[in-house]
Design a protein that fits this description.
Length: 211
């Protein structure tokens, strides 16, 4: 894959470069500040970009704001955002543009190499990869939807992390058939508009996070 990296921490940046190149990916651009991100993405159109949230000049939310802008200028551009903490409001705004091709991981996850690589590949393929802590904090900001059962909320939370039905079944120690039934119930209870199953799945996650 062709990858753009936006990270100002030298050690983490060089570690990411070594890790990604070691498994055969091509780093097409490396930037260290928020204002450099969108021009780099427009120039290189990478398969995926790995962005830190807090970058110069302000070290606040430059990376996340650039991610939001990039998705407006390059619809569907896969982005994997890394953060030391969960930036709840901007994370919700980024996901609100459409969860396809979006990842949001805490930096601790980079140390779990297989998990990080899996998340990166999933996002590049148009999937979703959300850190469980991100999902937990976004959900905790809002009252759970009364229409959903505790098990349905569990299933929806795992859907929000980008897991597929077989993985959800394994995680919850239930059958894939049960997972399918729970998802069908979730979609029905949320009264989502008619669409294909993939889009309704994404809409279910976004509806729950924004309810």
């Amino acid at each position: 894959m062709r990858i753009v990296i936006a990270e100002d921490n030298v050690l983490l940046r060089e570690g990411l470069i070594l890790l990604l190149e070691d498994v055969g990916h091509e780093i097409v651009a490396v930037v260290g500040s928020g204002p450099e991100i969108v021009p780099a993405l427009l120039e290189h159109r990478p398969d995926v970009a790995v962005l830190d949230v807090r970058l110069p000049p302000g070290f606040r939310d430059e990376g996340l704001r650039a991610a939001i802008e990039a998705r407006k200028l390059i619809p569907g551009q896969p982005l994997l955002v890394l953060s030391q903490y969960v930036e709840e409001s901007y994370a919700a705004e980024l996901l609100g543009q459409g969860a396809s091709g979006i990842g949001y991981l805490l930096k601790d996850r980079v140390g779990h190499i297989e998990e990080f690589q899996d998340a990166l590949e999933r996002v590049a393929a148009g999937g979703t990869a959300l850190d469980p802590e991100v999902v937990s904090q976004l959900m905790s900001r809002r009252d759970p939807l009364d229409a959903l059962s505790p098990r349905e909320r569990e299933v929806l939370g795992l859907m929000a992390q980008g897991l597929d039905n077989p993985t959800i079944a394994t995680t919850l120690f239930i059958t894939e058939r049960s997972v399918s039934k729970h998802i069908g119930s979730i979609l029905a209870k949320l009264n989502l508009p008619p669409s294909d199953s993939g889009n309704r799945r994404v809409l279910a996650v976004l509806t729950y996070l924004n309810a």
